[in-house]
Amino acid sequence: MRKKELFKRLTAISMAAMMTLTMMPSYAFASDSAFSDGQKTWEEVSAEDAFSDGDVIADEPEEILEDSDDFQLAQPDAAYDEAEDAKTAAAAYLKTNYIDGTNKITSTGGANVVKSDDGLSYTVGLTTPSGSSISSLRLKTEGSTSSYRSGWYINSKYVNWGSKKPSAPRSLGITRPTAEEGNQSFTATLRLFAADTSTDVIDDATRAEAAALASQDFTITLVAAEKVYDYRLTLKVQDSDQKEITDADVKLEEMSYPFDTVSHESDGTYKMIKDMQYKLTVTRDGYNSYAEKFTFSGNPEKLEKTVTLSKTVIHAITFKVTDKDTGDVIPDVEVTVKKSGDWQPINGKNGSYSLVEGYKYTWSVSGVENYKNASDEFTVTKDEEILIQLTKEISTYKVTFKPTYLGQAVDNATVKVTHEEEDDYDEYETYTVEDKPANGVYSLRKGVEYTYTVKADGYKDATGTYTPS
Fold first, then answer.
1. How confident is the model at residue 422, as a pLDDT?
2. Containing H/E element for 364?
3. How far apart are CA 98 and CA 108, in angstroms?
4. Which of 13, 33, 36, 153 has the fewest CB atoms within 10 Å of its CB?
């Protein structure tokens, strides 16, 4: 049932009840008269006779309105419809004049205040097309001849209201987010009111929300201020003999978000920010790389920085892997070598690695049967063979099954060995794996339970479990 229809019927019922209650006192002034057939009827009593002040009471008090639709309630329906129509009209007006087409909510900044395609978002650039800084927002409002009044509601640390109010924001000052903060957005809410709405109501956010005929949120994004470069750094790269290296690769990075890379200017200098932390990396083929983190102080005596690269010296590094207890060489062991901090392995040739003097590297050995994994870090200083000693850790046993009957070997017997593996996709499920021997010898893992089944013609099948330990 529609809201206004429900309102109509409830009002009709309440009016009928009021009629009934209003007519009830008239019973006190009625008297009955007898007809010749013994029936009785009501005898009317004049209102003037009943009340000294001349009030009039209703005739025929027993009459009750049974159909509320017979009672005309045009006024409540009209009021409801009028209110709904006013809100619809205000919403349409807001859309036409503040959202659609080329209409903008602010006259500030010209083309450098960019409106989104849907008309609900704005990006406020740093300057006007002529180059002037955009430091305020003049929001569009309704004039004195309009059918509406307007109010703007913004709660942001980047907008300075001062003593201004929602009903008359005029030009609001803005504080630019810093380069470190990045672009910042806030919501600006526009509300339209009836022309006779008081200023006190519009300036009270709580009452304004209830009184508004139409409302719309807009998102305004302030472009962050640019970084201020107050200093220039001159960078010089040389070798250990103080000869300048002009073709080195230099990378200078800011260590604060968004971690910009600083490119050199046409004169070779770098624009620097005071008290900013930087990371400097210098590389050149044939030389050791140089890396440093530093905070630029802006000290006039430190506006030139010299980096000295040392020539690369290559050493041949080999590895020997032995059993720690016996000293025996463990053959066919693969050694992985990486530069410390890198994930990419370095390729060796015939077990020899060409590594740079002064650099730190790591070696690692893993997956050697019955030995613990091992790794270590080392610094290259010369050609050398590095000894790697592995500690024995039995993880696999060599097992042979020998079927017998009364102490005698059963030659024609077959043996089947299986174990359970966990399902990679379901930790509660397992599947059976059959283990195959190599020349009759099984490699069985320590701590794993195996099931064996032995069959031979003329003998009952034998089955059992075995856990290497």
1. 87
2. strand 360-365
3. 15
4. 36
